Amino acid sequence: MAKILDKKLVSPAVYELVIEAPLIARKCKPGQFVIVLSDPESERVPFTIADFDREKGTITMIIQVVGNTSRHICEDYEAGDEWDNIVGPLGQPSEMKNFGTVVCVGGGIGVAPVYPIARAYKELGNKVISIIGARNKDLVLWEDRMRAVSDELIVCTDDGSYGHKGFVTDPLKAMLEKGEKVDYVIAIGPVIMMRNVARTTEPFHVFTAVSLNTIMVDGTGM
Questions:
Q1: pLDDT tens, residue by residue, 107-157
Q2: Which of these CATH numbers, 2.40.50.140, 2.40.30.10, 3.40.50.300, 3.30.70.360, describes 2-90?
Q3: Long-range Cβ contacts of 195-199 (<8 Å, 24+ apart)
Q4: Which residues, listed in sequence order, are joined to residue 17 by a DSSP beta bridge?
């Protein structure tokens, strides 16, 4: 069983859930995920671990309601309720070392899985520049958390309602064209955003990692 300790709506159709899972919190690393089975009749669904607290024994997930299962998980359960089963940590952790200057790019709810990665890079002594983006101001996610683990934070919105008007690739391209030292880039978000980030860094020969978790339909790579 996995108890929901806290649940809140952080943007339209996007929920932040804090789960009591001491064994997972003790072992998990940035970039890993869990599989949730909310009840015996439900579907197995993978979710990235967006944050963890080893001392409190909790993990945090950001879940966007996109179908019946995610709606059931988010809307039919409240703080104090329990899911039937949660398995993890699973998956290959992100590569962690002191690269030098790391740019962490998060688009939409992709900001959530970027957060523990950026935090770990900062703890390892990297200079962390974070670029986060959303369609508009109301959809900007975890700005305060990202600012706390970044040497520099750039916020972008498609409509210009907050921060830089444009895409996350705009400030990334600008810093590369100015010759700023960038040793490693990691991007998590919509596939088209990750593709554009990779295309932006390619001419500058900057190693770039992306997250292809959309192919992990049920956590087995189907």
A1: 998 999 999 999 999 999 999 999 999 999 988 889 999 999 999 999 999
A2: 2.40.30.10
A3: 196/167, 196/169, 197/105, 197/168, 197/169, 197/172
A4: 7, 61
